[in-house]
Specification:
Elements: H1 3-12, H2 19-28, H3 55-67, H4 74-84, H5 109-112, H6 114-118, H7 125-148, H8 176-179, E1 194-196, E2 209-211, H9 212-223, E3 227-230, H10 237-248, H11 257-280, H12 295-308, E4 313-317, H13 323-329, H14 335-340, E5 346-347, E6 361-367, E7 372-378, H15 388-402, E8 411-418, H16 419-424, H17 426-432, E9 445-451, H18 460-463, E10 480-484, H19 488-505, E11 509-514, H20 532-540, H21 544-555, H22 560-583, E12 586-587, H23 616-626, H24 640-654, E13 657-658, H25 660-673, E14 677-682, E15 697-698, E16 712-713, E17 726-730, H26 736-748, E18 752-757, H27 768-776, H28 778-782, E19 789-793, H29 808-813, H30 829-836, E20 840-843, H31 847-859, E21 866-870, E22 882-883, E23 896-897, H32 902-905, E24 912-916, H33 920-930, E25 937-942, E26 944-946, H34 950-959, E27 964-972, H35 978-1004, H36 1009-1015, E28 1046-1051, H37 1062-1077
Helix pairs in contact: 1-3, 7-9, 11-21, 11-22, 12-19, 15-26, 23-24, 23-25, 25-31, 26-27, 34-35
The structure holds thiamine diphosphate and magnesium ion (MG).
Length: 1079
């Protein structure tokens, strides 16, 4: 008999209504009301032990037996042999001997069914059938509670979420929603019968058997009261058992009176804070926590418990709801700082600031419960719900990394969510998928959902398709603890279990606080417009503080006087802070920084860039290591193609040149040598999308007989004995989460070069929120700096609408430099520009340029995000290589490469000066050569587009004083750098005369003269008439008609970034060269 036949035999022949039929329902899904009548019973269906949920087990046994009869117990072997040989009904089975030492759970069958003790097979078959069936049914009931008890748990303080509750019978029998067909086996009369408890439950405590009534009662208490536990989907038996134990063991929820009093005090503060704000600032938006005041004690409990388990630092992210309360009562941010945010005061320091319910904070404080010092950070976030999730994770990971906390024992991330956002925002899913990746894991996050069963004005049934708002967490096998927020003690229990879970398994866990929102979405909204019935009910509810205080008074844990005393005391604290806050006349943005970099700025010249050129020996050493096989080369088989790449790298090193990959490796390697951690993350970055990087070499032979590639070599991580660590990691296929993660990582340590590379530049737009809300504006809103680098492959190379453009224009449009204002010239012009702008945008055309700009990120005395358009075909273009001469000591990043060819020798002869950036330069140079125009046309490359190198551009323009100015780009006219460049060249040209008069006049009489003479020699004629007077700088405005207009040469405007048609692409490319070069 083959496997399928035996199994289908086992399952399909079960008569309706028997436990075996129920097993089929379990295994193949519900068939109630749909299944056709099964065939009549057969010999195999008559085997009583095949009933119920044992069918899975039978299947496993049978599969194992087929492979090796000795691999199963002798009794199974006998059974399968007999069954295969066609044994008569009920005769194939022989009772097995005891398999193990009896445990407390192990009750001999004989004590329950004496007839079984002597001869279970030959005895009365009817009796043993019944006993075993009933036990299996009890086992089914237990399992059903564990799997589905949450469906009928009383989770909702409003009592509006559960249609399922309706099927709760008025008897002691359990709900059908939970136990489904298992309940058919029993009636009320069976409730007093004792049943042996299986290993899969802990409800018995020390007892091995219990009356059915008691079993059900205990299961109801564990799974169907204020806590609903979702965990049976977890694939680990150990983890499932751990959770069972935490919720089923008798007495697990017991709290002593001290704990209860502490809980009441915390609830008092949580409630009191909102009530105070409501009173003092009744018309201010604060997104109050009323209806989920338990959040504060819950977070504190998670923190207390985790602190006692060794955690020292908490990185938290949260939305608007209850944020001020969390700042005040969890982080203990000074109350005056919070209250001044309501006062509408001017800010005393840098930054444009943010609304109060988005601000972050960082506090160090003593945890009184554990008497340990802890660090608490809440990451500032934009309005965009859930966007800070990956940022928090990145920051957490970085803290763990730099603290050597490789198992996440010291640093813990806590993420708070709203119910609508948790289920609605895709970033939640993307972030979950980072949770167990080796270079992204934070070793478990505790998620807390403020599930007020509404999102703004929308009900859950309109805002999600999943039963729970937390279902997204199931993708990573995270247990989910739903809990009624009006049962504070249940919430505390769940918080303890969550903290223990995280500390035991280092995996994510979710606490779903099922609550309500007492007011509208914010304090100004009227909720009755849209949720009249819900709010009618809410208005009848007592606040949880009253419910809990009453409970504790009834229990005799506190007196009404004590309750009042605690309340009054907190009121007084609030009142005092309120009065103090009133004295303030200014707010300070620096009070709200979430990632302080202590010591980084101190003692630094804020306008000095350290050198970026490095010693030639260093370049050679890195180059050679990067071009070599691992030290144990004889054991490590390298792919022949890779060997060729290594060989050609070595040749380049020997000839003192670098291609793009080598230039990058030298930047990384030299930083690593200097002690700077480098982290490169993104899709397929280890090899590089264009197969040019190869930072991780793979041994080509199977490693210890496994098919998983594990033997690797990373040369950059092995350059020097005492170098900093190098992290290069292929990411999940996400941009939003991974970019957010790297941003978070970059926030922690300014002395690290953190880089995110897009597979192709255009994919950055799926991370737009991180770019717009955090990277572009983070410093301005939250005075938080970041030196994060974005590498965005960009270039019109005939690859179609996607894969061509990294949308350079968007990054440029978001730069914060004013196109109409020429910054004042000085020796530190370049660094002042960098300091003033929100980010740096570059389109590097040479490896040396790339090398220097990467190194400059660390050499700067501050941190700025850097966006680089990176090349594709230039990666391998021989002309696009750099000599070591451009990278050695004394060299630096060239913001613009001026024309250096024949045209530069005779500027007066030059008819046109073309400015361009990036790859198109090489096409222009080639075409110019072919057209024989090398003396007539000068071409300058702008490497750093923003901030715009006004000084260098002006110098170049002045040099070719009679030349027509052209901006040439390969992107369409409404894209690329044109719209950024045009007004800035206009400003530069317009101010030229102004500088000639105003500045020169000052310079002539001052020490500045040499600087001006150097940069603007044409303003210092040895003889000639004096410059005409011009207005002072403040009075100069941009003329409507620039003195030297710049002409556009490139593709016309387009809705699409690039054509998908190869021929059109070639025609357009030709046309742009003609437009650029035709004289
Ligand atoms: C990405 C994003 N989309 C829309 C909004 C607008 N918005 C602000 S709060 C809110 C409702 C959030 O509901 P929920 O997540 O349940 O949190 P609650 O306000 O109920 O605590 C919406 C839609 C937003 N802030 N972010
Ligand atoms: Mg909500």
């Amino acid at each position: 008999m083959n496997r399928a036949r035996v199994l289908s035999h086992l399952l399909s022949r079960a008569p309706p209504g028997t436990p075996l039929a129920a097993a089929r329902t379990f295994i193949y899904g519900g068939t109630r009301g749909k299944a056709s009548a099964p065939p009549p019973p057969t010999a195999l269906a008559a085997e009583p032990f095949l009933n119920g949920s044992s069918s899975n087990y039978v299947e496993e046994m049978y599969t194992a037996w087929l492979q090796d009869p000795k691999s199963v117990h002798q009794s199974w072997d006998t059974f399968f042999r007999n069954a295969s040989a066609g044994a008569a009904p009920g005769t194939a089975y022989t009772a097995p001997p005891s398999l193990a030492e009896p445990t407390p759970h192990h009750v001999p069958l004989s004590s329950i069914a004496p007839a079984m003790a002597t001869s279970p097979m030959v005895g009365d078959v009817q009796i043993s059938d019944k006993v075993i069936d009933d036990h299996l049914a009890v086992q089914g009931i237990i399992r059903a509670y564990q799997a589905r008890g949450h469906l009928v748990a009383a989770l909702d303080p409003l009592g509006i979420d559960r249609e399922a509750l309706k099927d709760r019978p008025p008897t002691t029998l359990p709900s059908r929603t939970v136990v489904r067909s298992y309940v058919d086996a029993f009636g009320e009369e069976d409730m007093e019968r004792s049943f042996k408890l299986p290993m899969s439950t802990y409800v018995g405590g020390k007892e091995g058997q219990l009356p059915l009534k008691e079993i059900i009662k205990r299961l109801e208490n564990a799974y169907c009261r204020s806590i609903g536990v979702e965990f049976m989907f977890i694939n680990s038996l150990e983890q499932c058992n751990w959770i069972r134990q935490k919720f089923e063991s008798p007495g697990v929820m017991t709290m002593d009176s001290l704990e209860k009093r502490l809980l009441l005090a915390r609830l008092t503060r949580s409630h009191g804070f909102e009530a105070f704000l409501a009173r003092k600032f009744s018309s201010e938006k604060r997104f109050g926590l009323e209806g989920c005041e338990i959040l504060i004690p819950a977070m504190k409990q998670v923190i207390d418990r985790s602190t006692s388990l060794g955690v020292e630092s908490f990185v938290m992210g949260m939305p608007h709801r209850g944020r001020l309360n969390v700042l005040a009562n969890v982080c203990r941010k000074p109350l005056e700082h919070i209250f001044t945010q309501f006062a509408g005061l001017e800010s005393a320091d840098e930054g444009s600031g943010d609304v109060k319910y988005h601000l972050g904070t960082y506090q160090e404080r003593l945890n009184r419960v554990t008497n340990k010092n802890i660090r608490l950070a809440i990451v500032a976030n934009p309005s965009h719900l859930e966007a800070c999730d990956p940022v928090v994770q990145g920051k957490t990971r970085a803290e763990q990394f730099y603290h050597g906390d490789s198992e996440g024992k010291k640093v813990l991330s806590i993420l708070l969510h709203g119910d609508a956002a948790f289920s609605g925002q895709g970033i939640v899913y993307e972030t979950f998928h980072l949770s167990e990746l080796p270079e992204y894991t934070t070793h478990g996050t505790i998620h807390i959902v403020v599930n007020n069963q509404i999102g703004f004005t929308t009900d859950p049934r309109m805002s999600r398709s999943s039963p729970y708002c937390t279902d997204v967490a199931r993708v990573v096998n995270a247990p989910i603890f739903h809990v009624n927020a009006d049962d504070p003690e249940a919430v505390m229990h769940v918080c303890n279990v969550a903290a223990d879970w995280r500390s035991t398994f280092h995996k994510d866990v979710v606490i779903d606080l099922v609550c309500y929102r007492r007011n509208g979405h914010n304090e100004i909204d009227e909720p009755m417009f849209t949720q009249p019935l819900m709010y009618t009910r809410i208005r009848k509810l007592k606040p949880v503080i009253e419910l809990y205080a009453d409970k504790l008074i009834n229990e005799g844990v506190v007196t009404p006087e004590e309750v009042k005393e605690v309340k009054d005391k907190y009121e007084k604290i609030l009142e005092t802070a309120f009065v103090e806050a009133k004295q303030e006349t200014q707010v300070f943005n620096k009070h709200w920084i979430d990632s302080p970099w202590s010591g980084f700025f101190e003692g630094k010249d804020p306008l000095k860039i350290s050198p970026t050129g490095v010693h030639e020996d260093t370049l050679k050493h890195i180059g050679k290591k990067f071009s070599s096989a691992p030290p144990n080369a004889s054991d490590f088989v390298i792919h022949r193609g890779i060997q060729r790449i290594l060989n050609s790298r070595m040749e380049m090193v020997e000839s003192r040149t670098a291609d793009w990959a080598l230039g990058e490796a030298m930047a990384f390697g030299s930083l690593l040598k200097e002690g700077t951690h480098v982290r490169l993350s993104g899709q397929d970055v280890e090899r590089g999308t264009f197969s040019h990087r190869h930072h991780v070499l793979h041994h080509q032979k199977a490693f210890r007989d496994t098919s998983v590639d594990k033997s690797q070599y990373n040369a950059l991580a092995n350059l020097y004995r005492d170098q900093a660590p190098y992290t290069v990691c292929n990411s999940s296929l996400s941009e939003y989460a991974v970019l957010g993660f790297e941003l978070g990582f970059s926030m922690t340590n300014p002395n690290a070069l953190v880089i995110w590379e897009a597979q192709f530049g255009d994919f950055n737009n799926t991370a737009q929120c991180i770019i717009d809300q955090f990277i572009s504006s983070g410093q301005s809103k939250w005075i938080r700096q970041s030196g994060l680098v974005l590498l965005l492959p960009h270039g019109m190379e005939g690859m179609g609408p996607e894969h061509s453009s990294a949308r350079l224009e968007r990054f440029l449009q978001m730069t914060s430099d004013d196109p109409d204002v020429l910054p004042p010239f000085s020796d530190d012009f370049a660094i002042r520009q960098l300091s003033d702008i929100n980010w740096i945008v570059a389109n590097c055309s040479t490896p040396a340029s790339y090398f220097h700009i990467l190194r400059r990120q660390i050499a700067l005395p501050f941190r700025k995000p850097l966006i680089i358009m990176t090349p594709k075909s230039l990666l391998r273009l021989p002309e696009a290589r750099s000599s070591f001469d451009e990278m050695i000591e004394g060299t630096e990043f060239q913001r613009m490469y001026p024309e250096a060819g024949p045209a530069s020798n005779n500027p007066a002869n030059v008819k046109r000066l073309i400015f361009c950036s990036g790859r198109v330069y090489y096409d222009l140079v080639q075409a110019r050569k072919e057209a024989g125009l090398e003396e007539k046309i000068a071409i300058a490359r702008v490497e750093q587009i923003a901030p715009f190198p006004y000084d260098l551009v002006m110098k170049e323009c002045a040099k070719y004083a009679d030349a027509e100015l052209v901006w040439s780009q390969e992107e369409h006219k409404n894209m690329g750098a044109w719209s950024y460049i045009q007004p800035r060249i206009a400003t530069a040209m317009n101010h030229e005369r102004h500088i000639s008069s105003e500045r020169v006049k000052i310079a002539r009489d001052s020490e500045d003269q040499s600087w001006y003479e150097y940069w603007f020699p044409w303003f210092f004629p040895s003889s000639g008439p004096p410059e005409p007077e011009s207005p002072a700088p403040s009075q100069v405005h941009v003329a409507s008609k620039p003195k030297r207009p710049v002409r556009y040469a490139g593709r016309p405007v387009s809705a699409s970034t690039a054509t998908g048609n190869k021929k059109t692409h070639i025609r357009e490319s030709k046309q742009l060269l003609e437009d650029s070069l035709a004289l």
